[in-house]
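Page header: ASSEMBLY MODEL / two components / 629 residues total.
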Amino acid sequence: MEHLFSSHDAQGQIPLTVHELAEAARWLRISAMTMTHHAGIGHTGGDLSAADILATLYLGGVLRARPNDPSWPERDRFIMSKGHCSGIFYSTLAARGFFPADTLKTYMDSMSKLNGHPDRNKVAGVEANTGPLGHGLPIAVGAALASRMAHMSWRVYVLTGDGELQEGSNWEAAMTAQHYGLDNLVVIVDRNRIQQGDFTESTIRMDPMTDKWRAFGFHTLEVDGHNHGDLLAAFAEAESTKDRPTCIVANTVKGKGVSFAENSPAWHHGVPTSEQLRAAAAELGVEVPWLA
Amino acid sequence: MVGVTREAETNSNQTVTRRLEPELFDCRDTFSRTMEEMAGKNPKICAVVNDSVSSTKLKNFRSKFPDRFVNVGIAEQNMVGVGCGLANGGMQPYVAGASCFLTARAMEQIKVDLGYSNSNVKLCGMSSGMAYGELGPTHHSVEDVAWMRIIPNLAVVVPADPIETRAVLLYSEQHVGPMFLRISRLPVPRVLDEDYQFELGKAVQLREGTDVTLITNGVLVSRALEASDQLAAQGIHARVLNMSSIKPLDIEAILKAARETSRIVTAEEGFAAGGLGGAVAEVLALNHPVPMRILGLPDQFAPTGSAEFLLEHFGLTASGMCTAAKQLLRNEKIRDE
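Prediction written out in full:
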């Protein structure tokens, strides 16, 4: 699978095709599951629902980044607000070349750089220390304002969970984003409809999700969050939208790609056994990249 | 004896001896002027407020630098997160709001987005302590120092007067990393010299003394100077340390005071638990225990009253410090007898 990731140079100028993105996302999925199996703890369901969004952003040519110069001032910012899904996030950063894939084998080990939630001071490519929910969007708004103040052109992307949007700080930040007309800001909602304890709609109803964002002054789109072509088109539409921020509600399936984990609250932080890991790999049509 | 000083008895180059002048200052005026001065020279300086345009006195800043002024509305969690994002983008944000709301409401953002992330954000907790006296305990910020000083990476500074307020702000511009600056609105006299330069982690000795040390900061420093003068008239020589830098803490100055004066009184405009007194007590208990008094609010919410009334009510006055100092001396005498 690594052949996909060596196809772009250090500057990441060569995006993967839609077909390659699908293949890459399968590798990212099994990578995250292997890490969670290794650590004995993790968030499999949300890792898998976000896999295609992250693959598209990082490997599909959306984010301007320099993995060999991670603090390049003009880079686009990606804020992983659902920081608990670090397995898929770290796998994507490694695939993009921010650090060697071997580092993934240390996930949550004692003294590892790869904490269960990302630390920007330890891991190249991480922009914000997230984990507690509702932190990413305010930070993204600040970074978007900074782009404007500094007369720069970087764009800011933030991925939130859907249950996460029950935190009020998100809506404080949404009001700021629309008031300042931050058209360099894109919110992506991983709408997998499941939170830790139950389905979102049985916990605190989040529908009508898209209407909420529209009411808060965002340009809104709803896409299949597992369709790389649709995601690429949505990011392009966001970039051409002026004077207001964009929210992409990405309809996803929690646990997507691994049938026994799909759409099941139990797999929010389910940890695969060796047997389940092999079954998942077989279903995804990829090799288990390593085993602890 | 109020306002009368005596000459320093040692040649310590840190000791400053000056008379308290009658003129009083609102440190927020210095804050806003200095913010404008810094922003005029440094295009990265920006301000973030939570509707607190008047109470931070940043109206002029907004007029002069509208592109670098962000008003997020009444939304403190968002305000601190926005500050973190601005710093991520290379700006130098000053996030300013009433300290009671800024610290309490945004505690997790301060911990994670600023402290844990080590973001280059300066938090300005305005109108701290009991400045909003009559408005009641909802608007008192008497917990902020205890809350802030427990967070790694976050420096905590409580300036004493307009001169130190300006000096701390100029320092903060050069300091890379998060800081919490506690800016009062209570009128205070000048206690520092015009050429004073702030140094993080350094106490400033304002009076020499060998019998007891008064350690305080913020609006209580001038009261400590008055206390020292009153004690001097009674033959008690009280050292005064302005401990504006609570984190990092000047451990050396505390231990020197313990060794040389054998008695410590701390006084703070906040709860006696967890703040300045707590920090000093931690140092003494582990290194050089000496008799000590911690003046501050007891474990109760304040009654209704003006700031001056409440400071009086809780003994956070020159006479309160004198009483505490004399109690330490008297207790010793009783023990000796």
